[in-house]
Amino acid sequence: MEITSRQFKHCDLLSVKGKVDSFTAPDLTKAIEALNSGNRFKIIIDLSKLEYMSSAGFRALLLGQRNCKRYNRGEIVLASVPKKVMDALELTGFTPLFKIFDEITPAVGSF
Fold first, then answer.
1. Labelling 88: which of 59, 81, 94, 105 has CA 20 to 30 A away?
2. How many C-alpha atoms does 58 have within 13 Å on its Cβ side?
3. What is the mean pLDDT of the segment spanning 37-48?
4. How many Cβ atoms are within 10 Å of 58's Cβ, its own excluded?
5. φ, ψ at 37 (rounded to 5°)
6. What pLDDT score does 62 carry?
7. What is the dotted CATH code of the domain comprising 2-109?
């Protein structure tokens, strides 16, 4: 798995490439926590190059969302979610917990 970060004026973009499983999910959690420790709580996660996400990856997203939304500071927004991952999000009931956009530009504009 590869995570790249890009900072914008009002938000941050994390691009995730590869597979997020129980072995790599802690890296995703650390990337989100690194932004939070820098007082960055408005985060877009680009999943366009994601091949697979396990329940550990969903847990990492959920923990990040909880930290970002605490005290009404911000939120995590998902962009370009592949169909397989979207189906898994719907199956687990996570879709109401995140704003989901088809492309990155409207996701950035949501902040």
1. 105
2. 16
3. 94
4. 18
5. -70, -20
6. 94
7. 3.30.750.24
